[in-house]
Amino acid sequence: MTETEMVEKLLEGDEEFKRIYSEHRELNEIIDKFESKDTLTLEDETEVKRLKKIKLSLKDRMESIIRGDESK
Q1: Which tens digits make up the pLDDT trace of 11-67?
Q2: Domain-embedded: residue 22
Q3: Is 20 exposed, middle or buried (0-12, 13-18, 19+ CB in 10 A)?
Q4: Could you tell me if residue 51 is inside a domain?
Q5: Residue 5: count of CB within 10 angstroms of its CB
Q6: Number of domains in the chain
Q7: What is the pTM for the complete model shown?
Q8: Residue 44 half-sphere exposure, CB side, CA atoms within 13 Å?
């Protein structure tokens, strides 16, 4: 099974994965909106860094679920 197939399967049947995936996508959209601005304030830059750390954490958790490592 490819990773894409595994993600699709998890999105259909794993509520935790579905929640994490959705939150990851939402953060991506928010980050994209910030980064599409011509200039960012210091507060914006700090917020983008904070959001990217959260997004990375979510991605790590998704990868863990995909690998079958259920320890949280």
Answers
A1: 999 999 999 999 999 999 999 999 999 999 999 999 999 999 999 999 999 999 998
A2: yes
A3: buried
A4: yes
A5: 9
A6: 1
A7: 0.85
A8: 12
